[in-house]
Structures are given as C-alpha cells and as structure tokens.
Amino acid sequence: MLLAAVFGAVIGLSVGMLGAGGSILAVPALVYGVGQPLSTAIPTALVVVAASSIGGLSSRARLRAVQWPVALVFGAAGLPGTFAGTALGREFPQRWLLLAFAALMVVVAVRMFTGNDEHTGACRMPDGGIDHRRCLPRSAAAGAGVGVLTGLFGVGGGFVVVPALSMLLGLAAPQAVATSLVVVLINASSGLFAHLGTAGGLDVGVLIAFAGTAMLVSVAAGRFAARLPAIAVRRAFACVVLAVALGVGISSALGLSTVG
Fold first, then answer.
1. Residue 164 has what DSSP assignment?
2. For residue 52, what are the domain limits?
3. Hey, how many other C-beta atoms are within 10 angstroms of the C-beta on 117?
4. pLDDT per position as a tens digit, 113-168
C-alpha cells in the first residue's frame, strides 16, 4: 500500500506537469514494485492514469486551453485501436511484452530529451489560432496509432499525444498538455473496458492508494506546472523513464535467457 502511494505520487506529478508519462511508469511500478502480474498491472495502470488525468484537468485554465474538437476526434479514433492492441497483446508472453515496453520507453526518453517547444504544425494559422478542419484528419490518424499502444501496453499515450499535438498540429504548450489530458482519459477508459474481460482480480487496496494519490498530486502539479521551465521538467522526467527502461529491459532479458 505504501509503495503504491509513493508510485502514485510520481505518476500524478508526471501527468499533472507534462500531460503525459503516467502509464509509462505505472506499468513497471506495478509489476516490479508492487509485484502484480502484467494482466493485472495493465488495467490497474489505466485506472490510475484516468484518475490522474481528471486531476490534471481540474483547473479552469486547463479546461479553457483544451481544443475539444481535436481531443474528441483524436480520442474517438483510438477506440478501435485499443481493442486491436488488447487482442494482439494476448498473443505474446509477458516477458516479450515487457521487453518491447522497455524499448518503447527508451524511444520516449530520447524523444523527450531532443524535443523542442517550437509550434509550427500545419494546423496553426498565422494569427496563432488553430484551424480545426485541417487538424481533424491528422488527429484521427495519430489517434488510431495511440489506441493500439494503449491496448497493447496499457499506456494512455500522452507521451505520443503531446508531441503530435505540438509538432504535427501546432498547438501551443498549454493547449497541447490540456488537450492531451482529455485524449489520455478517453484512451485509458476505452483501454480499461477492452481489458475487463481478461484482467485478473484487481487489488482494490493497491488501486485506491495508487489512483487516489495520483489524482491528488496531479491536481497540485497542474496548478504549479506553468511556473517551472518546461524543458527542464521534461528532461528530468526523461532521465527517470530511461532508468526504468534499463531496469525493465535487463530484467526481461535475463528472464528470457533463463527460460531459454
């Protein structure tokens, strides 16, 4: 319970500050920190990320920054992808999925190190506004891909959504973070529904401690996010993601060699 609360605080901090990254840490935390099997960790992580997304959206400033047409199209396009990713994940052993998950974490960490805060996407108009009509096809395509990741690994996809909204569509940082929280909430909810039939018995105590702490911390983090340098926060989080990825990758690789 105590470990779950500590990990929940880290996830809430990530989602509240960055609008992303909660589930990329929640799954390994539940598997290696709490000791849950992957079949239980994935739906538990989805509940935690959904709760922390709601917390991150609690401020009025965040709600005003949400680009609702983009968020709804992005999220809706991911719904079939979550079921496809869930079905695909059933075909692979847990250790192979964790190894692939570690590789994905490395990609995320590198992207967070090298990313910038320029907003020149094709949907951005000269006056700084967003042309939603031009955004919707791109939003649908990106949303479908994120949906597959949600179903396969139990991730909300915020680490993909934020760069897509910022670099491909041209949303400014506050808009991208706020909009991503809505998308992550939709993805996590649909992913949880897709996993309900295959999830093992959820540990209610761990779930409440993890999700409750994540939501509370994300509320506080969302209020202070604008006061901290975005690049420094993003790179610090990238270091954490990379360290966790190395641990997950080494553990999974050793497990595969032992089985072999």
1. I
2. 2-259
3. 13
4. 776 555 555 566 665 566 667 777 877 887 888 778 777 776 656 666 776 777 66
Structural domains counted in the chain: 1
CA distance linking residue 246 with residue 48, whole number of Å: 23
| pTM listed for this prediction | 0.72
CA neighbor of 192 nearest in space, from 155, 227, 222: 155
pLDDT, one tens digit per residue, over 92-106 is: 877 787 788 788 778
| 39 neighbors 198 (Cβ within 8 angstroms) | yes
Task: Write b or e for each residue in 155-193: b if 16 or more Cβ atoms lie within 10 A of its Cβ, otherwise e.
Answer: bbbbbbbbbbbbbbbbbebbbbbbbbbbbbbbbbbbbbe
Predicted confidence (pLDDT) per residue in 203-226, tens digit: 788 888 888 888 888 888 777 766
Q: Rounded to the nearest 5°, which phi and psi values hold at 130?
A: -115, 125
Residue with tokens 């999220």: 75
